[in-house]
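On to my pick:
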Amino acid sequence: MKIFVLLPRIPYPLEKGDKLRAFNQIKQLAKRNEIVLCALNDNPKVNEQDAFRALQPYCQSISFIKVTKPQILLGLVRAFFKGLPLQCGYFFNHKAAKKVNALIAKHKPDMLYGQLLRTAEYIRHKDIPKAIDYQDIFSYGMKRRADIASFVTRPVFNMEYRRLKRYEAAVFEDFDVKTIISEPDRQLFPHEKRDEILIIPNGVDHDYFKPMEREKKYDLVFTGNMSYPPNVNAVEYLANDILPIVWKSRPETTLYIAGATPDPKVKKAACDRIIVSGWLDDIRDAYAQSRVFIAPMRIGTGLQNKLLEAMSMRLPAITSPLANASLGAKPNEEIMVGSTAEELAQHIITLLTDNDKAKRLAQAGFDFTNRVYDWGKATSILEDAMNQAP
């Protein structure tokens, strides 16, 4: 089968969750299918040559379509007046659509596969079998952001929440195959036929993210794209609410915040006990040099790749009920879960003082991720659905 894959971003380097998911799905689908990749690019700093080299082994054809700032601005204006989500307007423009149409006409694919709602406008009306990866429930993620937004920005987030909710449901019937990352996301989906959406979880590269012997320089580590609002919120939660409780009994406790493009709010959290790294060439070093992983997520949706990676490297992990709802690990056996700053702080203290408990939790989490989360198994569900599409 020839699959035309349309992405809102070039899936390399792998510093964002959607890029990681796209790259690994392409890698798995390429084993038995021809992949024609088309990726939009709104970031002039991306090294397209490096990305091309990384993707070339898996793709028959690769096309990158630049999306310029004037095109983005025009798209946002059009989306605003048409009642479409601003996220769709950001990524959709007619010049790019002509290029996408030309590529589809040239390659004559058997299946169109769009990642995220951001690509839906390009392919939703094509008379070819189509699949859409909703990935996360964008509307509800926006609602969570609205709930904690300032008085000034809350109306914008609420507007986008309503538009996303309508749009998620509106494009549902346009696609033959619909996928999402977790059961909690599917249950929040605003459509009566939500059970038709396939759950395609993420995986983890267990050969890459494996236990490594390193000197432990840090007590805690939190990783991710540090300009992503849910991660920024988690850093502020750690710095302002959780760690002050920990420091009362363990004043020497350190936190390593590792990830690309740290937001000014993340940089502000830096001090002698909170180290902000910025971009790392090998994120595994951050995991291996730390004793405990913590991801106290309060907003956002979907499965946290950072948890999979940390647990695959046999780190004891702590998270929130929100993040574990998608992960599905057993609390207090495979992961520690805390609903409040006090609970999360106590879990930190426990794992830093009880080495036996930390080792048992780390091993159980390692076994869990190796048993449940595998890119090959997950992508085979998607591939089967594509083969059965009318």
Observations:
- Residues 218-372 form a domain with the Rossmann fold fold (CATH 3.40.50.2000).
- The two ends are 13 Å apart (CA to CA).
